[in-house]
Please model this.
Amino acid sequence: MSRKNNIKKMLNSDKHERYRSYKRKKTWMYATITGIASVLGGGSIAVPMIKADTTSTGDSQAKEIDSTSQLLVNQSSTTIPASTSSRTVHIDGADYGKYFVQNGTATIAGDTSTLTQDIGNQVGNTLLNTKIDMDQSFTLQGLVNLGDKSKSQGGADGIGFVFQPGDTNVIGTAGNGMGIAGVQGAFGFKLDTYYNSDTKPAYNPDPSRFATSDNGKSASFGAFVDGTSGVANTIDSTDSPAKQISQPSNNEFKTITVSYDGNTKAMTVSYDGQSWTMDISSLLGNNTAMSFGILGSTGSFHNTQQFRLTSFDYTVAQGKVTAHYVDDTGKTINPDVTQQGDIGDPWSTEQKDIPGYTFKETQGTPTGNYTANDQEVTYVYTFGDSASDSDSQSDSLSDSTSDSTSDSVSDSNSLSDSDSDSMSDSTSDSVSDSNSLSDSDSDSTSDSTSDSVSDSNSLSD
Ligand SMILES: [Ca+2]
Model:
């Protein structure tokens, strides 16, 4: 029939799908891991495939219940993910290479990664092949080898842990950038073996007291790092001070633990008899799913730097897909619709009927399966209604009906949407605000990645 009818037919089917999705999210799921399968990339990476195998209709105020049926949390959010216990993963050292991706100079052999060799201008990381759900707690246990040389002996730059909202193949700049600098939204913790006093576009100086605090020589130290702006800043606050550590020596492995409380957002690193704690709420911002990994870098000075995994307990973040609605100049003409689901589960986006606009094309596939990294679909429209005048009255009637219906579903379904299809300025403003996170994330990811290559060469110690 006519295109208009086809669009309406599609809308109806999509609404049904969305309604089911909506009911599914309102329904609390008691889920278990039914299997670990699936292969990514080169065939050596295991991704936990998680399915909800039983469901139970919850009451209007959903309650999270763990495997021992203890009441844990009252959820007031309108979007309730499948039981997080189904996404909880425990891995041991032998699983390192199966669950982490090697980037840059990093290589994994057995339970140990060599992040950098004792060679200049290297930067490498091993990132988990799924994002971490930052609303849940995690504990990483392992050992680090910082090398065999202090700065005064030609050693650099150290090992760190990075959290960033982009994809699982992102890597920051070498040298003083510590593999964190240059990655939008990144933050973490570092064991820094090279005190640097210089300021570069990608990073700022280390706390000056470490310049001479090892008997007149530069000291090594541990500190949290704020690189959320793309510029790495060593954190040395009253609440979370940087602390001096032993110099690298004899390629000795020392135990390190990174633990995180998903409720309080407190992150604690324990290393060599000291601990560092920080409330990372402000670093996290609105991000709930973060790529995570262990990294190392060298500059003109260098060390062999390694990480040995003992165990890691964490919760896999859900995948996310965002549908954008724009005109052919790229301007947003309808609020984004963001959906989340377990990795491997199917999603579908909706081609909306937008009053005053005619659908032109879809950029990206309208349906797919959730992956570890974020996905996007863009629906492009041209201004003007292609329908003839003769049936405009009935069209506008049915349009407004379907709009209000589907919107009320999507509004309660997706947290970011504002409440109507009225097309006012305030609507599109709020859309661009909520969009800016995911947009800048994916853009900055590729930018910072390519930048880091050229930067890493120019950033020597
Ligand atoms: Ca440094």
